[in-house]
Hints:
mainly alpha; three-stranded antiparallel beta sheet; 5 strands; globular; disordered N terminus
Amino acid sequence: MPGRNRNNRKKYGFYFDYSLLFVLVFVAGFGLTMIYSTSSYTAQLEQGDPEFYFKRQLIFTIIGFVIMILESKFFDYHYLKKLTILIYIAGLLSMLLLKTPLGLTRNGATRWIKLPGIGQFQPAEIVKIGTIALTALLIVKAGENIKSFKTIIVICIITGIIPAGIVYVFSSNLSSALIVVLISIVMTFVAYPSYKIYVALTGVAAVAFGFFYTWIKKMAASGNLTGKFRLNRILVWLNPEKYIDDKGYQTVQALYAIGSGGLFGKGLGKSLQKLGYIPESQNDMIFSVICEELGLFGAFCLIALFVVMLWRINHIAQNAPDLFGTMLATGVFAHIAIQVILNIAVVTNTIPNTGVSLPFISYGGSSAVLLFAELGIVFNISSQIKLER
């Protein structure tokens, strides 16, 4: 046996995706730079320290990076099969804590839990990881039954619809609920051998959206949507200038920032919209300040970096040692891609405002740490890809 292991070490090398690591470090560093740029003014006014948000995010980034390195080196992703149910249940139970005194309310939304001595975090982020892990496990357990669309429906209900419903009911966080469902759908789409049903369902959804859009415009014109919170967001989306004094203020200011940036921007740190015009500009709307300071060129460069990151994750998924590794990497791919697309779509008013953070760029400790943890799993998967010398 020892001789066979030595022969295997001679025959095979093991893969590590340095391209993904380089892009991740660059994106995280860029995110820290933009958080300082966007938050220094409000941090000075509110906290008396222009580096307040930057320092906190730097700490979260370092913690996340350390966790990622430890996972990639010392944690075998196969152990997740034993921990998946625990993570899934822990995520759902943590959502229930939002209705206890531990729940923390900000800007009218209760989406954080504050634990004495530990700090605060968003339990919805744990639910996302639980969804990725459980979907991957159920797909592996399904075996040949994955060819049945009924099996796909059952998996989507267990890993997507049920946790999304709990997230929405206990936190009113529609964006996180939507992300959970979409992660489950993307992962089952990759696992299911036929795409025709998904194409048909997409067509049905497109037609339904067309009818819904037409109905909303008619209802808006008649004034029958006043007072309906969720539908009012759609009114703001259709005509943000009309609601600039209320719900449309943030969207309009973000669009001003994007438009004033031009091709190459005003220069790093020279944004005007971050000076109190865009509320908490270091959070969900940070992409608009990037457009203002670095222009469309800077925005496209950032998008290109995300594309490269997703390409490398997809490469690892395609070459993973087993199906479980493939599906885990696919889940991380889906999570990052969905949040990037939704955030940019919200900032540019392509879709109604749903409050989605931009991965590794927006301010947020629990989101950053858990995203690094997800990528730690991806790096661990890549480290077990054998390369014949």
